[in-house]
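Q&A FORM
Asked by: J.P.
Topic: structure of UDP-3-O-[3-hydroxymyristoyl] glucosamine N-acyltransferase

PROVIDED:
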Amino acid sequence: MQLPAPISVKWIAHFVQGNILGDATQQATGINEIHQVKNGDISFVDHEKYYKAALQSAATVILINQAFDPPPGKTLILVEDPFRAYNQLVRHFHPFPFPEKLHADDVQIGEGTRIAPQVFIGEHVQIGKNCLIYPNVTIYDHCIIGNNVIIHAGTVIGADAFYYKKRTTPEWKYEKMISCGRVVIEDDVEIGAHCTIDKGVSGDTVIGRGTKIDNLVHIGHDTRIGRACLIAAQVGIAGTVIIEDHVTLWGQVGISKDLTIGREAVVLAQSGVPSSLKGGQTYFGYPAEEARYKRREIAWVKRIPEIWEKVKHL
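REPLIED BY: S.T.
REPLY: Here is the structure written out as tokens.
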């Protein structure tokens, strides 16, 4: 998320009640979680497992709960709870205005677009030309929808990311990370009924041009789907997945987080994908493997009783 104007690390430290380690003259231009950071961004780290990755990231300002010598070009702000300090900044710069009307006043809608009754459209939404938006669709704040897009009834675009931090003291609970990203839907996309596409935590969830999505599909935060993909009903895609161009996912495929599905891959129905897949091949099963090998494996598994009967009589 870009800030409306650069802010000084002195202001940040005062706002989150932290101590500056390093260059106190730096300025920040954005707020992003670690998967999305770029130069000028504020990010955070609160676990020793990720200290090195955060310190080596592109972030300029890092909220952190352990003192380190700042790497060149970075400023650290030492705080007791970086996660809460990050959320505090997001709330300040990206406040949530609870909706009180079906269409926000600043919605931009292109020529030829038709919007059915009972469609909710939040603030700062842009919708292109010649789109069809069917009844009971919900489009949250800051979403961008291209030209010639069709969205069927009951679909939700831009709900919050499913992103929580586990707390165990003083009681067991999950604390929500505040989402400030967007959903960007490119031209010529069609989205079926009752789909859910979550906004990015701090960046964009993107549906590429010409992609077609069936009913009851879920797409997690910060996932980027390429051009002309085909996604059948009840597919579930976790967060920060990259699906390259011309990929086909058949019904009830499940894809774990932080993976890449290569260009022109085909994943057959009810397959589970726990790791990245190369493009240009067809996959099946759990864990999803090349279909020709998986089918042979299933054939041999079916022969186990027959083989066992032969072996036990030897």
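FOLLOW-UP: The radius of gyration is 23 Å.
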